[in-house]
Automatic annotation (TrEMBL):
Belongs to the glycosyl hydrolase 1 family. Pfam families: Glyco_hydro_1 (PF00232). The active site is at residue 377. PROSITE patterns: GLYCOSYL_HYDROL_F1_1, GLYCOSYL_HYDROL_F1_2. This is Beta-glucosidase. InterPro entries: GH, GH_1_N_CS, Glyco_hydro_1, Glyco_hydro_1_AS. It comes from Listeria floridensis FSL S10-1187. Keywords: Glycosidase, Hydrolase.
Length: 479
């Protein structure tokens, strides 16, 4: 295959991705309210326990909160966006902090200072010809909504969310074209605090509560899609899934069916958002989990009439499962439990590295929905070492990304319509799961450690120049 053969479609959106709650810092500055992650300590101080017990997070004063200062993108965005522009970014995926605009979440009027901040960020992007790709709700439902309404468990949250959406759709009408309604919407099943801003610990039937909250999010997503198109017909609205093909552990048909069910757990959300209706298999799912959704008049018509324009997803690894409970010894390192695949290597955090799995995932999603795809997260979390001369030789990250870009190209050759690629954590930031800084993804190193020490100086890694070449050549030069 020649280099010319490896080129991506004209206008392909190369870029990088971050989230407000993992990079901005300034956690109470200029009128911002508390985000969910602002309650969470670092992993050394009990982050996992707090994630699974929101009441504890609300009531405990921890020693160190990584998100409070993070990497201070709030004050350093000009420097960071300039570095993104130097790499040649065509787009930049970021999120708008909901509590920065509506501090408690249920206010009628927005916080002007918060809106002004994103005015400035988008203006800086425009200065360099970078297209913003904005996630509306990226694990930062305001703490006030969790405390006062139990987050997305309450139908009232739909209206609070739509007020937020209308505010930003109108304010940034001429600055933002690409939107995503929720980040990794299926994460609500695994970490309800992140995904739903809610506490399920006292629920008589936790599955009932989770799927009712999911219904509220799906209705909110559809209504937001309509709103975005009404305000600006040029808007493109996507849904976003934490994806990764699930393989059966053996050819045993029971294992094959278990793998299919595992994939359906995530596809459930996109089936509704992209097709416009609850899938046929949901009837059995709801029956077996004793779930009876409260569906308001007009909800099903809303889901039917306002489907998304594209399907975005994150991909870090594939998964492996068995129908035999005794075989299913889980690995550490990810919220998605999986068997260890003997054919794959794993990262330092136990995430199994599978570029072919990305091609499989692309084909599976595109075959299912026939809508444009956008890979908005992909990358390798690793410990990076600054050498004596100041260099950071992250060849392992280059190797990981190179093979995934090749897999993307194979997917495109297979007939998949792929519009863009934004590797995760294009600048080092706080890990969502662990709250660590040492788990780094970026092309740009940030001088900060797990305890919040460091100068916050930005340094280019070896991967910075590599990715710059990839973008310059539109994917042809991967050396």
């Amino acid at each position: 295959m020649t280099n010319q053969d490896l080129k991506f479609p004209e206008g392909f959106l190369w870029g990088g991705a971050v989230a407000a709650n993992q990079c901005e810092g300034a956690y109470l500055e200029d009128g911002k309210g508390l985000s969910l992650v602002d309650l969470l300590p670092s992993v050394e101080h009990g982050r996992f326990e707090a994630l699974m017990n929101p009441k504890k997070a609300l009531e405990t004063n921890y020693n160190f909160y990584p998100s409070h200062d993070s990497i201070d993108f709030y004050h350093r965005y000009k420097e960071d966006i300039k570095l993104f522009a130097e790499m040649g970014f065509k787009c930049f995926r970021l999120s708008i902090s909901w509590p920065r605009i509506f501090p408690n979440g249920d206010e009628t009027n927005p916080n002007e200072k918060g809106l002004e901040f994103y005015d400035q960020v988008f203006a800086e992007c425009k200065k360099y010809g970078i297209e913003p790709v904005v996630t509306i709700n990226h694990f930062d439902t305001p703490v006030g909504l969790m405390r006062d309404y139990n987050g997305w468990a309450s139908r009232k949250t739909i209206d609070f969310y739509l007020n937020f959406c209308e505010t930003i759709f109108k304010r940034y009408k001429d600055q933002v074209k690409y939107w995503m309604t929720f980040n990794e919407i299926n994460m609500i099943l695994h970490v309800p605090m992140f995904g739903g801003g809610m506490d399920i610990s006292d629920a008589e039937n936790p599955e009932q509560l989770k799927y009712q909250a999911i219904h509220h999010q799906l209705v909110a997503s559809a209504r937001a899609t309509k709103l975005a198109h009404d305000i600006n017909p040029e808007n493109q609205v996507g849904c976003m899934l934490a994806a990764g093909a699930t393989y059966p552990n053996t050819p045993n048909p029971d294992d094959v069916f278990a793998a299919m069910e595992a994939d359906r757990e995530g596809y459930f959300f996109v089936d509704v958002q992209a097709r416009g209706y609850y899938p046929s298999y949901s009837k059995r799912l709801f029956k077996e989990k004793n779930i009876q959704l409260e569906i308001a008049d007009g909800d099903l018509e809303t889901l039917r009439d306002y489907t998304v324009d594209y399907v975005a997803f994150s991909y870090y690894s594939s998964k492996l499962t068995s129908a035999d409970p005794e075989v299913n010894q889980k690995t550490d390192g990810n919220v998605f439990a999986t068997l260890k695949n003997p054919y794959l290597k794993a990262s330092e955090w136990g995430w199994q590295i599978d570029p072919v799995g990305l091609r499989i995932t692309m084909n599976a999603i595109y075959d299912r929905y026939q809508k444009p795809l956008f890979i908005v997260e992909n990358g390798l979390g690793a410990v990076d070492k600054v050498e004596a001369d100041g260099s950071i030789n992250d060849d392992y990250r280059i190797d990981y990304l190179r093979e995934h870009v090749r897999a993307m190209h194979q997917g495109i050759e297979d007939g998949v319509e792929l519009i863009g690629y934004t590797p995760w954590g294009c600048i080092d930031l706080i890990s969502a799961g662990t709250g660590e800084m040492k788990k780094r993804y970026g092309f740009i190193y940030v001088d900060r450690d797990n305890e919040g020490n460091g100068t916050l100086e930005r340094k280019k890694k070896k991967s910075f120049d590599w990715y710059k070449k990839v973008i310059e050549s539109n994917g042809a030069d991967l050396n």
